[in-house]
Amino acid sequence: MNLQNLKGQIEQQALPNLYLVTGEETALLQKAKRLFASIIPEEDQEMNYASYDFAAVGLDDAIADITTPPFFGDHRVVMLNNPTFLTATGKLTDGQEKALLSVIEQPIPGNLLVVFAGDLKLDKRKKITKTLLKAAENLDLPRLNERQVAQALHGLLEQRGFRIEPAAEQELLLRTQASYSKVLQELPKLLAFAADSKVITRQAVDDLVIKESTAQAFDLADLVLKGQREAAIRTYHDLVKNGEAPLRLNALLLGQFRLLLQVASLQGSDAEAGKALGIHPFRVKLARQALRTYPLGKVRDGFLKILDMEIQMKSKQVDPLFLFETFMVNF
């Protein structure tokens, strides 16, 4: 089910006793939490609403709450965050597991237990995990793809009477790696900047939105592969001057070249390749665009030279800027 389904259940008061919320899109997960909290009137939340972080406080308080009937109300909502006991490394005591199984199998009418697993990798071999998966209503909130992020952005802007220039939209997606959650974080300052014109320009994005480190690494890798030595060296110098550690910068550059090699070996859609590599499909799209321009042999050669540069940084007292300049001259 999705957020729209959840809204419908809340409006119709057709609420199951147990939810499992999974997904990687932070903004949607936060929206889901607000929706679950809205089930309880604000004046009753002190009595009938609670949120616990299992990683911080354990399970006992949540069990005590969820086994207590609603106090002068129709519902009690208990949210359980970071349920690491559902993963391969986490665990419950025998007593806690028995108590939680009892809650799942014999819920108190009106009480809702909402387990926020987020992007945790659940161990489906565990009895508690299998029981939860079987009994719970699963609200899954995966990352939005680039098209969905763009559609959501247009919808939000139209509601406010704004629009965004195509070049500005493309740059915003690049700088945020097409992350819906990050786009939402950047939007308030862009809207404030464009308050008079109602148009978000490319210049506004350039001035206000900081590039993700992966986007910076992509820019630097692009300059390296194009053989633009002066521009690449200047960019490297600027990044170091702005606080990027040379080893971290080298690792990002190495990671970008590695990504190009990995993407070159994969078939299927951007989404399928992204899932296989554990990255956003937008990064796969950018990598495939780059691979249409750069010979694979050149990418492989660059990867090996950057790897050698990293080894020298770690094993010798050599100026990293000198190493990068030497790399660019030789490459």
UniProtKB/TrEMBL annotation:
Residues 19-136 form the DNA polymerase III delta N-terminal domain. Keywords: DNA replication, DNA-directed DNA polymerase, Nucleotidyltransferase, Transferase. It is an enzyme of class 2 (transferase). It catalyses: DNA(n) + a 2'-deoxyribonucleoside 5'-triphosphate = DNA(n+1) + diphosphate. Pfam families: DNA_pol3_delta (PF06144), DNA_pol3_delta_C (PF21694). It comes from the Bacteria. Its EC number is 2.7.7.7. Belongs to the DNA polymerase HolA subunit family. NCBIfam families: holA. This is DNA polymerase III subunit delta. It comes from Fructobacillus papyrifericola.
